[in-house]
């Protein structure tokens, strides 16, 4: 499309492209760690390096009752607490059935990503941290921040980044700061290039450095800069070496990124004695005692024959664990030491305040993809609603329930919480039907229910209604990728039947999913909304949006593909080559989107105007401003987005599409009013990774594209970054015309 460049900014940017300073200093923590280390026996050092709490006599091992999923023992004589770490990022895992209803089932991290709201993510993370602390835990095995590559990845619901590194960086920082503000250490995962569950323990990821630094590393770097306490390495290989023994990747994490905490293995992810490569702690401590055997040197008990080099590795690993304990003051906040933690683990840590926060997060995560003036539903326009589809009344799944034991039940999710180590069970879950029935009753609107997959019943219900709401869903879980991107059961058939074979002319589809889904019926229905596994308040969140109590504010953190061919499938072989480079999601111009990344409608319309550019205070260097006008009839919020286009690569000549570098969620804007939006760009934002120099290089110019999604661009502004001599001729705060700039 032709670009009308609204303004051009000339700037001088000096200095190096070093990483941002850590939000919290580690110097004192490491000094204290060294002092503590000097007092420790070899046995005590070893105890910090591998987990405890698992029963080696059980089939495939099992967690002992009243222990935490991940832990190390206390050292009372030194005042060191046990590390009590639990799954997972979206709430305390209901590992045993007796824990059901004792925790809040929060929205998934992908649902939180759909809010595009770091302040809300921080608030949710604080609430999650409070519940972990209330359960006696001082560590959370999360957040998961891998940028999506494979749309069918079974764990995409767990990944806070969605398909974009900038969004992931923004939200990873907020999550880490939120959790750790509660005295609970965060374990960032999964490091690194863990893009699929298919053959996750055998796959060998091959990723070029430019793709790594521009697409997959940024959320990890942001969490490191936020002071994250620990990092979990993944099951897969990278360039032929397992992630948990990959010295090159550990050097990037610890040396180049500046990570100061400890690196922990995923459960049973160690293959060799990995201390010398940079691993600090193995989990769960049985069945893979590689660190232990390194320390013991093959003998019973601690060995007295460690070499000087081995002693250095042991001390380095132990000191990193100690630094985290001191940095977060875990000794002062310790609640219990397993196995004397049963009272804490069984505590009910829910609250009305957390229920309200979980509802707010779920509500803000709802993305309205389409609305042909059917929503919101009001009693003056609608008298009868049909609610259709088995997922409408679906219950929470308990993998420990009657008849479930063993097998793959642990990996099974439901339509509120994904499966695997992050799953939570609750009888307090509000289904879509429950939420809609409650709100319809308040409005005096009659509801007809066909909560089955019966096509005949669906048509009969729709024939009696002014509006038909079809609830469609699918889920996924750890260890398995989704077989396809279809919705479960007969969802597609039900939607087709209601839209084409009933007398009801208005069909609304509510989608509950762990990631991307196909919507072959999208052109036939009146409205589509999606929620990415919204937790216990799912039904209430649907009701608030559908009936207009809340104008939708969610945005797609992924691209909804038109077909499966518009995605990257899981690799079935052992070699996983990221041959597409940066061309995933909206960055791949060959992919066709049913709905693009960043898309999301609300109950009003917005126009963008008056773009300007200027100089910012450090660490930002360029500010791009514009006005967002509400030209509709309802007060609403919107999410303004900036996509930055850099020049062609100076070596290859290749051009890249504009990528997200700014997100601003406005306050509520009244009809006829406007809000000023400011995007602050850093030197890193204005740079690209140069493989030849193995570093980021500042671009000479850039073009900012501002709009409502990656495909809905409303304004453009050019930014010209010139040598200092040009800045003297044209002061940095002066805007130049296009003719002057050329």
UniProtKB/TrEMBL annotation:
A UniProt-annotated Pfam family: Fn3-like
A single Gene Ontology CC term: extracellular region
Domain of life where this protein originates: Eukaryota
Function: Beta-glucosidases are one of a number of cellulolytic enzymes involved in the degradation of cellulosic biomass. Catalyzes the last step releasing glucose from the inhibitory cellobiose.
Family designation: Belongs to the glycosyl hydrolase 3 family.
Annotated signal sequence range: 1-18
Name the UniProt record assigns to this protein: Probable beta-glucosidase G
MF-aspect GO terms: beta-glucosidase activity
Keywords, ordered alphabetically: Glycosidase, Hydrolase, Secreted, Signal
Every Fibronectin type III-like domain range: 638-710
EC number assigned by the record: 3.2.1.21
A single GO BP: glucan catabolic process
Record's catalysed reaction(s): Hydrolysis of terminal, non-reducing beta-D-glucosyl residues with release of beta-D-glucose
Location of this chain's protein in the cell: Secreted
SMART domains recorded: Fn3_like
């Amino acid at each position: 499309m032709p670009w009308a460049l609204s303004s051009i900014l000339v700037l001088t940017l000096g200095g190096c492209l070093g990483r941002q300073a850590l939000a919290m200093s580690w110097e004192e923590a490491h000094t204290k760690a060294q002092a503590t280390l000097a007092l420790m026996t070899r046995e005590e050092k070893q105890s910090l390096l591998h987990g405890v709490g698992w029963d080696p006599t059980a089939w495939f091992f099992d967690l002992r009752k009243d222990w935490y999923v991940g832990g190390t023992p206390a050292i009372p004589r030194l005042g060191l607490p046990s590390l009590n770490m639990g799954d997972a990022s979206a709430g305390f895992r209901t590992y045993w059935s007796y824990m059901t209803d004792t925790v809040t089932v929060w929205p998934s991290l992908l649902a939180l990503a759909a809010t595009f709201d770091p302040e809300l993510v921080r608030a949710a993370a604080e609430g999650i941290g409070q519940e972990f602390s209330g359960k006696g835990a001082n560590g959370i095995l999360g957040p998961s921040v891998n940028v999506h590559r494979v749309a069918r990845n079974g764990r995409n619901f767990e990944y806070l980044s969605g398909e974009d590194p900038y969004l992931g960086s923004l939200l990873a920082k907020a999550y880490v700061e939120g959790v750790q503000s509660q005295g609970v250490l965060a374990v960032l995962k999964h490091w690194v290039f863990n893009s699929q569950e298919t053959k996750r323990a055998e796959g060998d990821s091959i990723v070029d450095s430019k793709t790594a630094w521009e697409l997959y590393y940024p959320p990890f770097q942001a969490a490191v800069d936020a002071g994250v306490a620990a990092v979990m390495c993944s099951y897969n290989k990278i360039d032929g070496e397992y992630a948990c023994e990959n010295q090159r990747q550990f050097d990037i994490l610890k040396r180049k990124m500046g990570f100061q905490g400890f690196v922990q293995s995923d459960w049973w992810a160690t293959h060799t004695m990995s201390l010398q490569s940079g691993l600090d702690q193995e989990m769960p401590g049985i069945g893979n005692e590689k660190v232990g055997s390194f320390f013991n040197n093959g003998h019973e008990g601690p060995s007295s024959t460690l070499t000087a080099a081995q002693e250095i590795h042991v001390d380095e690993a132990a000191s990193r664990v100690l630094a985290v304990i001191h940095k977060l003051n875990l000794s002062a906040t310790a609640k219990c030491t397993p196995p004397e933690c049963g009272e804490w683990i069984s505590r009910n840590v829910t609250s009305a305040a957390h229920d309200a926060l979980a509802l707010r997060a779920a509500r803000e995560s709802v993305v309205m993809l389409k609305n042909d003036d059917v929503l919101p539903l009001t009693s003056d326009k609608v008298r009868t609603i049909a609610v259709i589809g088995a997922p409408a009344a679906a219950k929470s799944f308990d993998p420990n329930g009657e008849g479930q034991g063993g097998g793959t039940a642990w990996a099974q999710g439901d339509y509120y919480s994904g499966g695997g180590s992050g799953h939570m069970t609750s009888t307090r879950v509000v289904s879509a039907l429950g939420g809609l029935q409650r709100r319809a009753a308040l409005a005096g609107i009659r509801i007809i229910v066909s909560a089955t997959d019966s096509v005949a019943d669906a048509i009969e219900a729709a024939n009696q209604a002014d509006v038909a709401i079809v609830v469609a869903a699918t889920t996924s879980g750890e260890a398995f990728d989704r077989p396809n991107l279809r919705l479960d059961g007969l969802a597609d058939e039900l939607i087709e039947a209601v839209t084409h074979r009933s007398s009801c002319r208005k069909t609304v589809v509510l989608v509950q999913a762990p990631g991307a889904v196909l919507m072959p019926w999208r052109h036939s229905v009146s409205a589509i909304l999606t929620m990415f596994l919204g937790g216990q308040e799912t039904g209430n969140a649907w009701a608030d949006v559908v009936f207009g109590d809340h104008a939708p504010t969610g945005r797609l953190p992924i691209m909804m593909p038109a077909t499966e061919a518009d995605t990257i499938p899981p690799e079935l072989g052992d070699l996983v080559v990221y041959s597409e480079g940066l061309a995933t999601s909206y960055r791949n111009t060959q992919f066709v989107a049913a709905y693009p990344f960043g898309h999301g409608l609300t109950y009003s319309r917005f126009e963008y105007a008056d773009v300007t550019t200027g100089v910012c205070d450090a660490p930002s260097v360029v500010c791009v401003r514009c006005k967002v006008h509400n030209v509709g009839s309802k007060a609403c919020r919107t999410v303004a987005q900036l996509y930055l286009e850099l020049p062609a690569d100076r070596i290859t000549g290749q051009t890249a599409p504009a990528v997200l570098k700014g997100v601003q969620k406005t306050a509520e804007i009244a009809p006829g009013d406007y809000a000023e939006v400011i995007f602050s760009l850093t030197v890193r934002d204005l740079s690209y990774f140069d493989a030849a120099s193995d570093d980021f290089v500042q671009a000479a110019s850039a073009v900012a594209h501002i709009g409502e999604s990656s495909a809905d661009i409303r304004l453009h502004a050019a930014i010209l970054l010139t040598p200092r001599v040009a800045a003297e001729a044209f002061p940095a705060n002066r805007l130049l015309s296009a003719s002057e700039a050329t």
